[in-house]
Amino acid sequence: MSEFRDWYNGVPFFTRYWMTFTIVLSLFGKFGLVSPYYFILDFYYFFNQFQIWRPLTALFYYPINPGTGFHFLINCYFLYNYSQRLETGMFAGKPADYFYMLLFNWVCCVIIGLLVKLPVLMDPMVLSVLYVWCQLNKDVIVSFGFGTRFKAMYLPWVLLAFNLVISGGGIMELLGILIGHLAFFLLFKYPQEFGGPALLTPPAFLKQLFPDTRYVGGFGTAPQARVPTRPGNTVFGGHNWGRGQTLGGN
């Protein structure tokens, strides 16, 4: 038990509670402790009955049954693995920034969910976080099923194709990719490559609630701002943490 407690307490803060609430609410619905109907996102009850908890519970709840149990476990693995890597990598020491990105992705999921009548939001939310990590670690080699290895930048699309072929789905994955791409663009590409303002900078009260901490290390690198150089000059400096093994390259 002490080993489990040590492992659990070692999981980064936001990843830990996101995973915990997901497992707890899903099991509550599975065993009938609370009717799953009170967890899902429903336009009518949210706006007309003011059941304002539904967007939050729809994020954490996932219906577990013989047909969805394996998919739920895969989602939990992706949640734990890639949220943890982001939280201790690119967002290491900046909990408010990571929380603000999660908040942005969640709001996008809720808006789309209300528009297209998605009852649960776990799939697009997890895929959006996975997509951001993959964009920050494009050349890292990942493994997927039967030892297949490829660059991380292709992983979200492989998952989309896999679910399209296996279950006839893919819509949830596509929504997660679109939300993740929007978050990545606003966080990194727009301010760094296009010179725009940092639109996803957390407000001051979040910085006070989750103050920055000192952290050495990281996993993944943000896109580099374009630096004009004269011919023959080389720009040195900067670290490239967490790139992992790469394919090819000249």
Name of the top-level CATH class:
Mainly Alpha
Head-to-tail CA distance between termini = 49 Å
User: What's the CATH architecture name?
Assistant: Up-down Bundle
Number of domains: 1
Tally of helical runs? 10
What does the average pLDDT come to? 87
Based on CA inertia axes, which overall geometry fits?
globular
Strand content: under 5%
* CATH homologous superfamily caption: Rhomboid-like
Strand order of the largest sheet: 1-2
Keywords: Endoplasmic reticulum, Membrane, Transmembrane, Transmembrane helix
InterPro entries: DER1, Rhomboid-like_sf
Protein name: Derlin
Membrane topology: Multi-pass membrane protein
Name some characteristics of this structure.
transmembrane; disordered C terminus; globular; two-stranded antiparallel sheet; Rhomboid-like_sf; 10 helices; 250 residues; Derlin; mainly alpha; Rhomboid-like fold; DER1; 55% helix; endoplasmic reticulum
